[in-house]
Amino acid sequence: MHITENRDALVNVEDANSASKALIIESKHTYKLTSEWKQPKLNGNPHNVKVRIIAAGLNTIDYKSVDYNFNLPQYPWTLGREASGIVIEAGAEASKTLSVGDRVWVSTYYKYIDGGVFQEYIVVPSHTVIKIPSTITYDKAATLGVTALTASMTLHHYFNISIDANTPDSLLVWGASTVTAQFIIQLAVRSGMNVYGVASETNLKLVESLGAIPISRSNKTYDEIVDEVNAVSNNSIKYVADLIGIESSNAALRLLKRGGVIAPLASMTLGKDAKIPDGVDVKIIEMKRFILDSSYKWHADYLNKLIQANELVFPAIEILNGFESIQKGLDRLKQGNMNGKKLVVLF
């Protein structure tokens, strides 16, 4: 299901000075749905942009921040890091590249309370506001600000894989049916990499359709999976992107030799007991770089170029409706077994 109605008309009828709806974190571990949230303002910053949120992507980091009490500088606070919407106001500098009424997608930073996308309006730096290609709808655009950007930054910044080079190195993606993994596989294949994807038996066809050699994890121990990856890849794995957790990341370390690189994308750590082989590099992916350093905007521009040319396949999207559905959606993510689907909330 995709958003087909003309929501651009909202820009002409919304009262940009009234209170607005939001799902906030009121106190430790406590969500609150409110219609009295104060709208953020540009506050005279010429580089800021105000966006009316139309669709927001849900990510595991959203519920983990609440459950484990991190990335919440104070209470109340806002959540949500990727969305799409309409520009309703732009500062003097921002208006050189963005106009009122532009359809845009955004990637935001947890330290900016004005940027949490689980509210009707956000105010964010202009370099994090990207025009939506004409070929896609708001729901698809709402999947780009975390998952697709993470994929591009992992491969083309942290792994230093050129977008143009024919790179025959081998990449293992563990958790290959997850949404971020789906984007990683496609971008890696475009760069000429040999890609292997570990996933459940149910999702092997999806992994293969994206260009990876599928390897089932179902009913296997970590040792058995590692042995199979080595056999299928002829012991050639140089890069690992793990989207499952500490145990799978530590298992994947056994695939790497000197010069190898691993990115533990799910856990952001290998744990204190990890046995890292000599010469293997561990990359912790910091998405905040996209927000704090405008030079990273090229990742968004590259994704847009692929999208405009219909060269990027989006994950299956399930639409949820309204602010009241956000917490239910986050509970769904917590349960796992999304089978490659992306949850997007339409406001």
From TrEMBL:
One Gene Ontology term of the molecular function aspect: oxidoreductase activity, acting on NAD(P)H
Matching InterPro entries: ADH-like_C, ADH-like_N, ER, GroES-like_sf, NAD(P)-bd_dom_sf, Trans-enoyl_RdTase-like
Family matches, as Gene3D superfamilies: Medium-chain alcohol dehydrogenases, catalytic domain, NAD(P)-binding Rossmann-like Domain
Pfam families: ADH_N, ADH_zinc_N
Enoyl reductase (ER) domain residues: 32-344
Domain of life of the native organism: Eukaryota
Protein name as catalogued: GroES-like protein
